[in-house]
Structures
1.
Amino acid sequence: AKVKKTKNITFTVPLNYNKAGSRLMCKFLVAVKSGKKYTAVSGEKYISNPEKMASSSRAFTKGKSKKGLQFGESLPDAVSLGVNYCLFNINITEFTQKGGQQLKYNYKGKNYYFNQSAFDRWGSLFSQLQSNKMNLSAEFLLPWEAGQTELIHPAARRKTSAHYYAWNISTKAAREKYEALFSCIAEQFDGGHGRGYINNYIIGNEVNAYSEWHYTGSTSLKTNANLYADTYELVYMAVKSKCKNARVSICLTHTWNVSTAGQFHSSRSFLDQFAVRLKEYGNTDFTIAYHAYS
């Protein structure tokens, strides 16, 4: 978009939502034309209100107490213990697994195919928990999975002893695959498709632990925090554009002020750099899934 310079200016561009030219995930900046060249006069910013597009306005519900349960698929355990908050660890590769019945999902004019049984399996459990008024947090993780290593960031694409790896958002095609995946997940688990409702999306586990829990291939605080912030921003935009009040969270270790070379950054330093990066893009909201145990 372009306008002539005046005291107050407003730019308007079509969103083209979910079409080939969709701008939902785009960054925008202001530039001034001087002669035949444009000079940027602002930083890059994302759209600040993706929730305007959300079809689900289900309210975020807080737990009645701190009492919760991290478990597999034992609904009777959750019910008998009287908890109303449940946490699930979910491998992204379950949804991107090829073979078997596939769920076709059109994103920005392109068809993507995700594993139907993963949606059905988790949806069956989540819908039962929703019926029992339990709040659901899902922590999305990326393990090393033979045949799916393209999901891992190129700098981290070597098999180590790490449990989980940084996500590949290094190219347009890689980014759009993740955009499509989390748009599909947020849509399917929006409480209106018979598969329950994810209240809180936790992106990665202890992401400041760059050697063991979120392997990045780098020891640089700025590199690691910025890569994670960019990944977080992508998921945030995808989720909020489907579920207005769902939350998206960063997961940190209990090492708030301690860092160990070659293993992890302190949670505080990582969070600070993460917040700086988000602020550059428009100060995106975030919540913290903090591991407070020691």
Note: The mean pLDDT is 93.
2.
Amino acid sequence: TANSGTAGSGGAITITAQGNGISNGGLTIGAFNISSTASNTVAGSTGGTITIDAGGTTPGDLTLSSGSINAAAIGKAGAGGQILITAKTFTGAAGAQTFTANGATTAGGLGGAGGTVSLTTLGTTGNLTFGAGGLSLSATGGKAGGNGGTITASAGGNLTVTASNLTTGALAGTGSGGTINLSASTAGGNGTLSLSAALSANGAGTGDGGKINIINNSTAANAIVISATGTLDANAGGTSGKGGQILVQNNGNGGAGNITVQSAITANNRGAFTGGIIKIDASGGVTPANAGTI
């Protein structure tokens, strides 16, 4: 742990195995709870920074067999910190596992913005799955207000979301929605990105809608599939505010990867403010005669 006391921010925890330019044996961490939180009642503090890095010139595999990672602000004020995880492949717990960088988690205070949670795999077999009872990433705004944070899940291979385990909205009071970045096939293969659960980056109160970016780099026949239950929302708060931004894009690596969208996608405004932006793009590396399915 590197938690703060009743004042100040959380500290830094770094676990690294980069191989120094040679073969990287990777990292295996058994039962654990890694924590760098801020426990404050005044504004200005943040959760700490937790880095687990098995990257380097020759990335290694990462196994986190059980436990949680927490860089939240757990008092009445303060912003969430950062959780940064990089490896060739990632293997998580068999059951529930949570990585949290939320803003102030105690109600009745000043609130605080969500932090950053980033999980990146660098290998072509580096698949990521977010399913029921499994891995969850959270960077919400505080319970008394605050903007949502940023969640990034970047897979060298396939990325699959079957449960709403990626949360980055503004929860209460006033706050803009956060940002959710999902990407697949970043290692140069032809993986798939499948979404069958709702994603939300909504604002609260007078906050604006946030951003959702869904990007693949694949020539697979079904490069991106968003089913009817995979709704995407980046709406303004309930009182007023601008609509957010939603991007669904397949770059195709010079080929013709298809995009299929069966769900509702909304980026609505509230009050006398502008609506959001929704862009669905299957044109990367695709000729007009062989466009994606949208």
Note: The radius of gyration is 19 Å.
3.
Amino acid sequence: PYIRDTVRQMVDDGVKKVFAICLAPQYSKWSAERYFSSFRQALKECAAEGLEVHYISSWCDHPCLTDAFVEKYEQAIERLRQKGKDRVYTIFTVHSISAFYLDEGDPYAEAYEKTVRKTVARVRPYRWYMAYQSQGMIPVPWLGPTVDSTLEKIACYGSKTVLVVPVGFVSDHIEILYDIDIDFKEYAKELKLDLLALPAARNAAVYADEPAPALDLLGFTHLLRGEMLLAERMLTRAIQVDPLRAQTQYHLGLLREAQGERARALAAFDAARRLDPEGRFGDLARRSYDRLLP
């Protein structure tokens, strides 16, 4: 629905308080502010200026947003590693805007950098770049560098694997499904590059407030699938939430054993058997502990 239609529906439903958020995490006068302006105009047209409205302008470095990007990135990297591709070149992207806005003090580029820095600090890419995509057709200067020019730079190093991470979008639409999945992939192929497009973060789970059993289940599921990075992330967070849960300690021991970390596996199995001396997971941990002893 259009913004005006939604405002009219809210009035009909008797809504009193509204939180308005633009689903572009990085605030810009060119994007988010235009939507907010349209929303304010719709309030006037629908005689709804009495609504209590809270505008969420920028959420570029919100911890849950970073979690979502990190989850998607680690899943992609894990799949690539299973194919023997360890050295991956990463390109982070957002939608380009007119460079004129930056001359007027627009915070967009700064917000973009905040998003990337938060993500990079967690995932530590092999090599990474920042680029702007989907430049418009209006004959004005647009923010760069472009994705095309960044691909050309990477191609100078030879045939490489490239992962494009669109951090300016939280849903899959034309800028991802066509610009990245089709246009950039075709150009990368011409440059003898293997390009993988990371899906938007729309389906990422946010684990900040999950209870330990849920985190443990997710971690063990990832372990069974061979997704070691994600398994470690979930299980270690489950331990942080509840360090006295024997089942999680046992699963962590299995993970450490699969990773070839014998001493850490023994420590986790030992914790599990002490926490649950008479129970099922204590017994499983005891058997695993004895099996790993020299």
Note: The mean pLDDT is 90.
4.
Amino acid sequence: FPVRQNRRVLPPLDAPALLAKTKTPGVAIVRVDGDRTEIACAGAGVLGGRPLRPSDRFSIGSMSKSVTGLVCARLVDRGRLKWTATLGETWPGEVKDPGLARVTLLDLLRHRSGLAGAWSSFPPTAEESWFVGPVAEGRTRYRKALLRAPRDEKAAAVPTYANANFVLAAMMAERAGGADWPTLVRREVFAPLGITDEMRVGVAREDDGTVGHVQEKDGYRAVPGEGNPALLWGADGVFASASGMARYVRAHAAESPRFLRPATWRVVHAPDGTGLFAQPGRFPSADWRWHNGSNT
């Protein structure tokens, strides 16, 4: 996510070369530089299928965390949520560890909760009932299990990446915003930014135009319908086309005061590693934030 733009001569986007280098079924490249947007595609969204198009949606995996960060920021701007809201205040009586009870929304969004190790996604004790049946019921069971976990103080001392952080942050937003996470994403992010079917929330669908692939000895094999479960909404769950990602990245670069207050943008894009959702301490330069994502 670019924070400052410097005019410079950039090499042309070469999607076929990247396709040949990575040997993946398909690639889409998006570059936003000031008011210029470039998109290049090569290969196919489904191995052996039609050519990939800029409108085909990919699962952006953990890049969905940036969307959750914006949902929370919008609710904070309107006084519906506070950066200092704690897990103990949000779910009284459910948090067993006093240290975990003091964890704030900002701690979660900065990966400073102390939920790490086996709890980065699902613990070894994960129950099948979390993954089947109504999504809301499974997420409630998952939340209660998370809030019974002990806090790892050593992991809390430094940013320690964990999907569970953003799942809980999304659940705090749901309580404050009076709607489920997909509705909040559409209401608080997509609609204000003018994003329609270029990006969506949910699980894998055939009409996205792409599917996940697994790498095998002789190449790749498509696995339609596979991906992260709805249980991980908040840490995952957004699908975006190349054109949709271009619009989304432009919004981050513009830092419009109509979308978020300037002070809130400064929290979101803090340059010292305390910003929301970027991987701490791994910036290519002081002017950039980065994140990757997968659907595994």
Note: The two ends are 23 Å apart (CA to CA).
